[in-house]
Amino acid sequence: MSLKGKFLAGKTAVVTGSTSGIGLAIARKLAEDGANVVLNGFGKPEDIEKERGGIESEFGVKAVHSPADLTKPDEVEAMVKLAADSFGSVDVLVNNAGVQFVSPIEEFPREKWDLIIALNLTAAFLAMKAAIPHMKAAGWGRIISTASAHSLTASPFKSAYVAAKHGIAGLTKTAALELATDKITVNCISPGYVWTPLVEAQIPDTMKARGLTREQVIDDVLLAAQPTKQFVTVEQVGALASFLCTDAAANITGANISMDGGWTAE
Q1: CB neighbours of 41 closer than 8 A, spacing ≥ 6?
Q2: Domain residue ranges in the chain
Q3: Class at the top of the CATH hierarchy for domain 12-193+233-265
Q4: What is the dihedral of CA 88, 121, 16, 235, to 10 degrees?
Q5: pLDDT per residue over 79-111, tens digit each?
Q6: Around Cβ 182, how many Cβ atoms within 10 Å?
């Protein structure tokens, strides 16, 4: 497959949490744009290999998988090194990996707090720290983090997640200012509820627990905060990430871009 006309041809994208869901959609879109990609995340080896091989055959790029546990600093560094060693550069970094846990603060397990902060926030800092020198050396870079509507507003019982996503927004602004003259942009995308297999799998249990129909769970529970009453799709998030890598987005930096069906407009 020819890469002619693909604006990321010859560049390398590292996408964390990309073996499924939002991260996989972003990785596939950047590969479609011509980038070689480093996938990262857990899952069945055969499923990961299917996605990795599919990216290579479908888009005519190279793809490798890093099994890095992003709560371990040395493994984050190894993931970025794998990108540089495999493809010669680290041009795009997408911090997407994340985890959630719901509990009142007074009952919130300390180990869950530590895990969420480590994976949702500290891992992004560590990946930036490792990738930025490569971007500076190349004179170009794009750093994109998947934040959340919860980077701008809060919900009860999600203290660690809300704190981490607010932290991502602040980290994004700080990095953007530090790198403003290096032709490296730093932005975050804040989706509302995104339609993924994980969300879909929650519906039957919620129907049973609350005595609701499937439509009621979707409209009155999952999409209660989104005025459009529509889920964001993973393809929409991928398309926005792709745009942020274009030359047209060269002066978009330090931005927290909402994609939440109007949730944070209220």
Answers
A1: 16, 17, 18, 19, 20, 23, 48, 97
A2: 12-193+233-265
A3: alpha beta
A4: -120
A5: 999 999 999 999 999 999 999 989 999 999 999
A6: 14
Catalytic one of 87, 161, 231, 263: 161
Structure tokens belonging to residue 238 = 């991928």
pLDDT in tens, 166-189: 999 999 999 999 999 999 999 999
Residues in the chain: 266
Tokens of 12: 């390398």
User: Residue 115, Cα to own-chain centre: how many angstroms?
Assistant: 17
Spatial separation of the C-alpha atoms in residues 86 and 67, rounded to whole Å: 15
Active site residue 193: no
